[in-house]
Amino acid sequence: MSTLEIKDLHVSIETEQGVKPILKGVSLTINTGETHAIMGPNGSGKSTLASTIAGHPRYTVDSGSITLDGEDVLAMTVDQRARAGLFLAMQYPVEIPGVTMTNFLRTAKTAIDGEAPKLRTWTKDVKAAMAQLRIEPEFAERNVNEGFSGGEKKRHEILQLELLRPKFAVLDETDSGLDVDALKVVAEGVNRAIDAGGLGTMLITHYTRILRYIKPDFVHVFVDGNIAEQGGPELADRLEDEGYDRFLTVAPATA
Amino acid sequence: MTELTEEKVIDSADGKVWSQGFIKGMTEEGEQLSEINPESGPLGGSAVKAHSHGDSHGGGIGIPDSSRAGRLTSYKLADFPLITGREEDWRFTPLKRLRGLDRVGVKGQELNGAAPAVEATGPDAVTVETVGRDDARIGSAGIPEDRVAAAAWEHFKEATVVTLPAEYAGTVEDVTTLTLTGSGETPAAAHILVHAKKFATGIVVLDHRGTAVLSENVEILVEDGANLTVVSIQDWNDDAVHASAQHIKVGRDAKVKHVVVNLGGNLLRTTPSARYSGPGGDVEMYGLYFADAGQHLEQRLFVDHSTKNCKSRVTYKGALQGDGAHAVWIGDVLIRKEAEGTDTYELNRNLILTQGARADSVPNLEIETGMIEGAGHASATGRFDDEQLFYLQSRGIAEDVARRLVVRGFLNEVIQHIKVPALEERLRDAVERELAASA
């Protein structure tokens, strides 16, 4: 059992207008086996939290801490974090010219495990995981994300989640831009990863739609860089009915 | 860091305009997903800035000063005017670094250094001779198209002639290699003729090494039905200057694979041209270059479709890294009126690995007949940016491994087309070395 602990996290970015604070004291603890939904209006800092956990250089941590089983995550490089067991399914996965998915997946698996996967079982695992996510076999020979549609990119993020088997997965708006069929395929993949055990999940979403397919244990509502409210799954139902309006009138998003 | 910009996003839910500093490709709007992701993709957005189509030096966007068909060709140096650097043909070349190759005959500038020493290995059936200037075969495949090549033509003392006899059937293992080792910094001229007789099949590698200030003409004569691969590797010492005009003449139903590998040297200017002497000719031209800090690697190609039913494919890919690394690719394709049934496509891709490197890529396609199979070109210069690095690192891959993964993959696309096993290995190693030098 592992614990990802975020304590009083303050994060800012540099813009042309100067330093802009985005996260203003976020605290959140996720344990193995738990699924936390992070919801909130645009600009509330949800994606910033995801990127900060993964270590994107754009974000500056001004204060606070992120620890994984007591280890200081903020002191780690991006690749060290991944090897420590953190995984970020990106909102907009980038294209990597010249690198095939096959090559990429094997290199990533080797890096995460510290040794090359056994070729025969690995090829079988990849094929099976691709089939479950309805990814055509020919994608294995295509360059990473190159020419993939939005839905194909998201399915490949979940493919990596299933193959790399992290301790904690942060899914950054994996549902956005997906039609309902694609959403179901992706949600099935996430549920398989959760059911396989040993995973804590942070599910970042703008919409409640995905929560019909992936059941959160906890729901946190982000507004203006902080958690405005938290609760169980019932909070998601309330958001579905009411939207974010009641939060916005209390604390308007920065314009 | 990658360039980052503030962009305004209209929230479709309430129509309110808000702005957020954001990473390209990491906004919150699902609707902005697009298949090609034109802003953050390797072929769009800021990447385009490192790529130019003609600028203030002259010419227009993708249009040369005049038709390529009208360019002067002559064996005589005196026929060519002095190079000023403003010509379409020379506008990208740093003349000062040519070490006099452009000014032969002016103010006592000579071109009389010793030509590179030639060492030949290969199958017995393929002959390698050293011949004098008056050998009848000289001039059978080419004619200089610029002053530097004409100077070399006037000044070379001896030529090396490689002959693949008629119906010679070489395999991928039967590689004839000429190792040309530069003999110093005195400007020198060299001449090579590779001659594949009727229905001959074979591979010839020109391997340039050492230090030289060299102007070279390479004639590649491919008779009817022959199938010839010529690989020209420029892996000189850092101080070398090398202009190489490579003239390919393609016979009826002949097949030529021409590969340029530009790795080492201060200034390399390689100008391959292909002309067809009969219908049914098929030319594949591949190029691979890796420009480091301070290197100028220039590749100018010309495919002259003057007969019916010929095919050409051009694929050049280059990686650039370091301050002042400069790569130039110009791809001229001319489809003359009589060249009905022509099928041509040319492609250039550049991958810029660090700040301070620059790639110029200009495809030019002139078409004088509509009766063709196909004609197209593509050119793109992409940047290996921090977002790509972040993506790979976020999957546990260390930075140096990530960088190698990308460059290797990018250049492999060319390497695997060469289909000469012994060479593929060496080129992969060379790419690794270039990468290691940057770390």
UniProtKB/TrEMBL annotation, chain A:
Keywords: ATP-binding, Nucleotide-binding. GO terms for molecular function: ATP binding; ATP hydrolysis activity. Residues 4-249 form the ABC transporter domain. The keyword Secreted does not apply. InterPro entries: AAA+_ATPase, ABC_transporter-like_ATP-bd, FeS-cluster_ATPase_SufC, P-loop_NTPase. It comes from the Bacteria. Signal peptide: none annotated. Belongs to the ABC transporter superfamily. Ycf16 family. NCBIfam families: sufC. This is Fe-S cluster assembly ATPase SufC. It comes from Arthrobacter livingstonensis. The gene is sufC.
Automatic annotation (TrEMBL), chain B:
InterPro entries: Fe-S_cluster_assembly_SufBD (IPR055346), SUF_FeS_clus_asmbl_SufBD_core (IPR000825), SUF_FeS_clus_asmbl_SufBD_sf (IPR037284), SUF_FeS_clus_asmbl_SufD (IPR011542). The gene is sufD. This is Fe-S cluster assembly protein SufD. PANTHER family: PROTEIN ABCI7, CHLOROPLASTIC. Residues 184-410 form the SUF system FeS cluster assembly SufBD core domain. Residues 36-65 are annotated as: Disordered. GO terms for biological process: iron-sulfur cluster assembly. Signal peptide: none annotated. Belongs to the iron-sulfur cluster assembly SufBD family.
